[in-house]
Specification:
The complex is a heterodimer of chains A (121) and B (110).
Chain A lengths: L2 E5 L2 E3 L5 E8 L6 E8 L5 E7 L6 E3 L7 E6 L4 E6 L8 E10 L8 E2 L3 E5 L2
Parallel strand pairs in A: 2-11
Antiparallel strand pairs in A: 1-3, 3-8, 4-5, 4-9, 5-6, 7-8, 9-10, 9-11
Chain B lengths: L8 E4 L5 E6 L11 E6 L6 E4 L13 E6 L2 E6 L8 E8 L5 E3 L3 E5 L1
Parallel strand pairs in B: 1-9
Antiparallel strand pairs in B: 2-6, 3-4, 3-7, 5-6, 7-8, 7-9
The chains are: A mainly beta (121), B mainly beta (110).
Chain lengths: 121, 110
């Protein structure tokens, strides 16, 4: 079974940094783009970033570009989200999700359980 | 990169049909046949229920159907059941390997 397990969330002050991790198992990690999607309290989902299978291409939503960096480690089958200069409005549950694939999948078919990031003083 | 527009809530009676709309623009929903829909129960992760506008993953009942016309996609749930009560989110491929999600719709089964 596909499993995505996020970790690294927590409480951080505005302007601070945090690194989220997502450990993947149960599928061929190297054949999928991986995304981070967030959900602010009581709000809808927001796609944040994704990274290509070999890590050579990364894309970001405008509101985090320049502050967040997505990366991946094929040997560890993990994807990361380094978040800097955090703002109150970055407060959300952050989900790791499996995205675009070598098989033509253009949707997110598997999701982790999410990790909560709270930005507050 | 604006969120796709969905009604905040919709309601329907047991056994009836409801349709949830998802409105974007000619640069996203209207440009690609890559709309997907997700169901989300409170405190849980989203679950894919429709992809490529109208296709269902294995295990999703055929009571769930998707369609698209112009810049608006729709999710229709027929034969409403109590367990269908949840939040529903649409998403679309938006070009250059980016995605957009909708604002989410709470379905209430009366």
């Amino acid at each position: 079974d596909v499993q995505l397990v996020e970790s690294g969330g927590g409480l951080v002050q505005p302007g601070g940094s945090l690194r989220l991790s997502c450990a993947a198992s149960g599928f061929t990690f190297s054949t999928y783009w991986m995304s981070w999607v967030r959900q602010a309290p009581g709000k809808g989902l927001e796609w944040v970033a994704n990274i290509k299978q070999d890590g050579t291409d990364q894309n970001y939503v405008d509101s985090v570009r320049g502050r967040f960096t997505i990366s991946r480690d094929g040997a560890r089958k993990s994807v990361y989200l380094q978040m800097k200069s955090l703002r109150v409005e970055d407060t959300a549950v952050y989900y790791c999700a499996r995205g675009l694939s070598d098989y033509g999948d253009i949707f997110h078919d598997s999701w982790g359980q999410g990790t909560l990031v709270t930005v507050s003083s | 990169q604006s969120a796709l527009n969905q009604p905040r809530s919709v309601s329907g009676s047991l056994g009836q049909s409801v349709t949830i709309s998802c409105t974007g623009t000619s640069r996203d929903v209207g440009a690609y046949n890559y709309v997907s829909w997700y169901r989300q129960d409170p405190g849980k992760a989203p679950k894919l229920i429709i992809f490529d506008v109208s296709k269902r993953p294995s295990g999703v009942p055929d009571r769930f159907s998707g369609s698209k016309s112009g810049n608006t996609a729709s999710l229709t749930i027929s034969g409403l059941q109590a367990e269908d009560e949840a939040d529903y989110h649409c998403s679309t491929y938006a070009g250059a390997y980016t995605f957009l999600f909708g604002s989410g719709t709470n379905l209430i089964v009366l």
